[in-house]
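Next comes this protein:
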Amino acid sequence: MLNKYPLWKTLMVAFIVALGALYATPNLYGEAPAVQVSGLRGVEADAATLDQVKAQLEQNNIAYDNIALDKGQILTRFKDTESQLKARDILDDHLGKQYSVALNLTPNTPDWLASIGGAPMKLGLDLSGGVSFLMEVNMKEAMAKAKAGLVGEFRNDLRNEKIRYRSVKEDGDNIVVIFRKVEDLQAAESLLEKRYRDLVLTTDEDELLIKASMTEQKQKEIREYALQQNITIIRNRVNELGVAEPLVQRQGKKHIVIELPGVQDTAKAKEILNATATIEFRLVDTEGDLTSALNGRVPASSILLTDRDGKPSLLKKRIMLTGDHITDAKSGFDEYSRPQVNISLDSAGGSKMSNGTKNNIGKPMATVFIEYKATDKKDAEGNIIFEKVEEIISIATIQARLGKTFRITGAGSQAEAHNLALLLRAGALIAPITIVEERTVGPTLGAENVQLGFKAIMLGFAFVFAFMMFYYRAFGVVANLALGANLVLIVGVMSMIPGATLTLPGMAGIVLTVGMAVDANVLIFERIREEIREGKSIQQAIHQGYEAAFSTIIDANITTLIAALILFAVGTGPVKGFAVTLSIGIITSMFTSVVASRAVVNAVWGGKRLEKLSI
């Protein structure tokens, strides 16, 4: 029988639309203002912190709806923004510098809906608010790090070729190598000229020294490399933060723009983004006198460092391995349920670790955490001066020759181990960066954008609804039902996909989808009219209208979908937001315009003897 769906097919259409409606429902409940308290530098909020927060709120007569401790964070919900702001100011004053107190918005989704994965759509920076950073890369530190790297490479090359030298050191913009014999100087000159063609070498046989300086091209390459690598590493860190639709891009010669939509815990974001963290592995100097070192007599081949508790240790200056060779780092627990970080190295790093530990089995090795912190001081050129902070994480005895994978312990808590693994996995910044501008988009402005965007969508729908009902009568009602189902499915799919984010351009994509969705129904209905004019029966006209228009609809939508996928692949920020909603809208519109609308047509007009059709 023409134009009759089997029961299972009708039920399938109804189920898909109902499922989309179910997961679109959380967007109707809205969000409640909240204050989030989270620890900094690995500190976790605990039951004592929770009691402290409750006491402060009750002492200041601030009413709250709900307060909960989850995964080391405290989230307090309020009825209005006035209470939220007042609570934030009070808690910020009383909790000290160990905790971040940030404004937040938490969904009002019912527990039963949240238990099956129901959650509202994530909104972009322009809709939900968030934070935008302008960060500056310290190029002076990048150059200093490059020169320090060359000093180490010179020493290794000369040592490997058995060329004797007195010292290799930095001297201003130059690297100076001093020798004892002319023969060693000449051999070194020949070696360095072959291996470092981008350096300018100046030889002084009277002073028995070689001066090496970087060409302008080499310095330019180092600055460009520092900027590009920092952008890559920051992107990795943003991904680790779980921010949807982030924007990370360069601005000028030494600036990076970062937009984090929906981020309320700005202190946490700044801690992760701004950290220039890495680790070094050094042998403990067991032969040196620690007491003498504490009195200022540190051996020339050693350095004096302390752990987090202030306990000093004497370490060898020579670095066994740096964090540059780390390819992966994951936090976990050891056999005694203590936090640890499992580390994987690249082949060069595995080789260095293997060579460094094979002759030192039974000796203690220290894991040193290094971080650069911005100070309030600036140099003569106006660059912010960074302070190098070195801290011993752990000292462990080398039990066997280590390779490409091993573990380090000593982190104070699981949160600190997680943060350390995050920073090591994302990579150490090539040069320190500092935030020169921070811009916050408040939720009020975002709410206004949502309201205006929603108004635009509703107006678009209203005009299309009116036109379709006027021009196609009863079949126009079917098209309008399909359009409504399409909007519900778009919202439902956007809510179900973890990484999908609705932006203001994304709303424009929804409006465009409305026009494209009704396009398919116009093609079908016009084909039905054409078939009726040619004298075919009503049922044959309906059948032929859907069948003949299907290939045209598929072709038109597939080409648009390809364009949307290309936009998503090469675009950033707002362009991606537009491409996401357009792609989802194209797929859902093909389902609602062809399959769902035909299910309604078949249910109302299918299998009946009809003399005329309201189209």
Q: What stands out?
A: The CA atoms of residues 49 and 74 lie 8 Å apart. The longest strand covers residues 364-378. The chain has a mean pLDDT of 82.
